[in-house]
Design goal:
By secondary structure, this protein is mostly beta strands. The strands form two sheets. Strands 1-3-4-5-6-9-10-11 form an eight-stranded antiparallel beta barrel. It has a domain at 34-130 and 146-228. The protein has one helix and eleven strands, in the order αβββββββββββ.
Length: 268
């Protein structure tokens, strides 16, 4: 009888240990997924392509650069740019992410072209130059996340600062033209600048390779429309500056490699 009771006790204890092992140790808590909710600050490097189309409005005296209705394309190659960004994101409905960000880039997106319509002073080429030295944007973005990978699109207003010049112009000025002089007739080399407002549209992806770090690639198209820019040379033969307005249509495309340091919002 005692042997039968001992065997029953051993069997009961063994069934608890081997048949129900979950009772022997508490379950491990589930590991939470990565959250994109939070703010970030970061830097970027990349390349930009600056495209400008320069035309001369009607001049009652003389067309000095382009005939009415014609334009000269002044484009840059893949020029280097670098800058910084800051923003905040909020993840909702499991995988959707919305946010806002500010972005600024500096570089030398410059190009030049010879005027195909007119020759310059003394028969030398008449050259047109255009350069963008900074761009900025303030965009909203929406994306979809697969845990640590985020794909997104952006849209918002944008700004650019540009410099323009024309070299070796024989005569210049609107509504009346002048020769440029120092102690003898020299070519006019008028220049000018503007800061213009437009819009940008882009897309990209981001990978959170660590809890507080992410990296990604972003493409943006900038459209700044057509604006009038006044170029001037201080050496007009009447003793003052000589000026003329030109219409400049501008588009920029950029590709940026970005890295961000992320910090979560309180409670996330």
């Amino acid at each position: 009888m005692k042997r039968l009771l001992l065997a029953s006790t051993v069997l009961a204890v063994g069934s608890q240990l081997f048949v129900s092992p979950a009772l022997a140790a508490p379950p491990r808590p589930a590991v939470p997924g990565f959250s994109w909710t939070g703010c970030y600050i970061g830097a970027h490097v990349g390349a930009g392509w600056n495209r400008n189309s320069i035309s001369q409005p009607f001049n009652p005296a003389i067309q000095t650069v382009t005939p009415v209705g014609s334009s000269v394309d002044v484009n840059s190659g893949a020029d280097f740019l670098g800058g910084a960004q800051i923003g905040c994101d909020y993840q909702f409905a499991t995988s959707w992410v919305v946010g806002v960000q500010g972005d600024a880039s500096w570089g030398n997106l410059s190009g030049q072209a010879n005027d195909p319509f007119f020759a310059g002073k003394f028969g030398n080429p008449l050259t047109l130059h255009a350069k963008t030295d900074w761009t900025a944007s303030a965009t909203a973005r929406i994306g979809y996340a697969w845990d640590r990978v985020l794909v997104y699109g952006t849209v918002g207003p944008a700004w650019a600062h540009n410099k323009y010049s024309i070299q070796n112009v024989g005569t210049f000025g609107n509504p009346s033209f002048q020769f440029c002089v120092v102690s003898f007739p020299v070519p006019c080399n008028p220049d000018g600048s503007d800061t213009r407002v437009g819009w940008t549209l882009g897309f990209g992806f981001e990978w959170a390779f660590a809890n507080n770090w992410s990296a990604g690639l972003a493409y943006n198209h900038f459209d700044f429309g057509t604006r009038s820019v006044t170029l001037s040379d201080p050496r007009g033969n009447s003793g003052g500056a000589v000026s003329e307005a030109f219409d400049v249509k501008q588009r920029i495309d950029t590709v940026k490699l970005r890295i961000n340091y992320r910090f979560g919002l309180p409670g996330h």
